[in-house]
Give the backbone structure.
Amino acid sequence: MDTAALLQFARGPALAFAVAVLVLGTAWRLLHLLLRPARRSLAEPRAKSAAGGALRAIVTRMWQPAAFRADSLPATLHAYAYHIGLAIVFFGFAPHIAFIERYTGWRWPAVPGWLFALAAAAVFVGLGYALVNRLTSPVLRLISGFDDYAAWAITLLPVVTGMAVLTLPLDAQYPLHPVAAGPLAVHLLSVELLLVWLPFGKLSHAFLAFVSRGATGAAFARRGTQP
Amino acid sequence: MNDRHLAHPLDLESPRLSVEKPAVRFDVQGERSDDDRVAAAISAFTHDFGRDVVVGLESCIHCGHCAEACQFFVATGDAKYTPTWKLEPFAQAYRREAGPFSWLYRALGMRSKVTVDELEAWQELIYDACTLCGRCTLACPMSIDIAGLVGLARHGMAQAGLVPHELWAVTERAARDGSPLGATPAVLKERLEWLSDEHEVDIHVDRPRAEILVTFSSIEIMKYPLSLVATARVMNHAGCDWTVSSAGYEATNFGMLAGSAEWQKRMTMKIVDAALACGAKIVVVPECGHAYSALRWQGANMLGRPLPFRVLHISEFLAEYLASGRIRVRQQAGSIAFHDPCQVSRRGGATQAPRDVLAALGLELRETKDSGDLNFCCGGGGGVIVNHRADELRYRAFGIKMAQLDATGADSMVTSCSNCRQSFDDGQAHFGWDRRMGSLLELVADHLDAPASGATQGRTAGA
């Protein structure tokens, strides 16, 4: 297979497969949770609205309580750095917007090149810290498994392969049919690997975070307390 | 009586429940094969893999933040006390038996079955090194109720006969005799008669009808009997229509702590049946944290329908009756520190009640560095206090609490849990600490003002 054919494969069947796995896998994971028997508390609730507790937990757990902040601040800041950085890189870079527009018709303004560069740097720094922390912290070393390292690598891979495709200034208009078809195909395939992996490992916290926080928040609200 | 009973007989005369020769060990109950124990544990685990459990087990991102919230990790720095690690065999069983890929793991042999060795090693982590205090949930970005999951994981251990000996022994004793510390109905009646005479207070026992059913903790009955007197004084002062029932007086629920759902239900139903028999509209839970959790938040599910009466922790009762004017107290000078029982505050939602009581007494409340819902456990919750092989670890955790209370500089300190008091008394003796943890209830009873208008004097003891 030549590079043009590989790019065509990455843009066509591979992309369709990855998106299908992402959608169906996410639905399967959520259904697997929702179809488990619910353990309904029959105790007289202290709070009238459990939904309020769920929403509060979803929002407030985005930041650590002050009592734990000193210990967790570096990890929290670095996690935010690569989460926000990834969002800016994926949704703000002009070629990515053009890519999405090609399939959906949706478009929005791109971020300036300097912001893209800053976001990409934040991803590298944040993910680098995450790996070093996981390898050096006795707690993290103990509780980490294959999925923790796989998720890290699969998240970093699209950023690394994306860097290899950067051949023009960051604010330039990238052509629809790039010269470097091979590297672009590899970049796309690495993104598709991320999409395929996402529903099944710890990356599923992209949607499970809301489920988990909401469930505990609602249960605790019934007791008149909050997680 | 098995070999373990003979090797480690209970010593009920010591200041707290004890065994004569505590030692580092793994405890087992009954003569069973390893395969049978594993099968029983897995069966119980699988039964508990409901939606709330699965959401928790699926959502952990292994960030490790929960470690810094756990007093046992903070005190020792040992990674094995990381709360999410305490769930590992439970999570391993879930992934292999009921997870979304369980069919694949089993077919390809990709996940090994939990072994009896792992379960035995795990005993220390979920019984000795977890007080079910739930502080870790506050540090978890996913809000996983780790303490709740540990509590459910104990079901499997109980089914497998892998409970620490003292905890199992007191639970079995509570199921058999009605009290973990030997406070049988006959002992209770004898004690109440003695206390009634000694302190000249009317204590109502086995009245056929009463608006309020009062329950006690056997720790109070056997170790802190003045709490019983204080309860009676407060009830009489407020003019309450109340009784104690010799059929359902024991509020502690060691079935819940050991992980025996069957014994938990049996213990809860004694109180529920006693309340139904006398038509109680309110059941007052004594100064005992896990007793509150067992009845207030789990009692209805034991009954299978909402409880037909209100459940109030004694601190909630005091706060309500002080606010309504039915209890009146003399104003006090000085400062005081309050130790929040985890199951009443953080996991019970009654954090404000004791603060309202102390404010009504006019005392200056000096909060510890981590107070209210963020408090550190006394170290003895979740059944840890009865487990002697956990003593060294518990004392290290207790050191955090001691330092925080000392730092308040308060004149005195109280709590609203007799199990916490026992933990503090033991820590005080161990460290030679020059402070004494008091009782919120006894503080109120000692400073009651003239009876409120309309309050009636209680009747004499007996039906």
User: Anything to note?
Assistant: Chain B is about 50% helix and 5% strand.
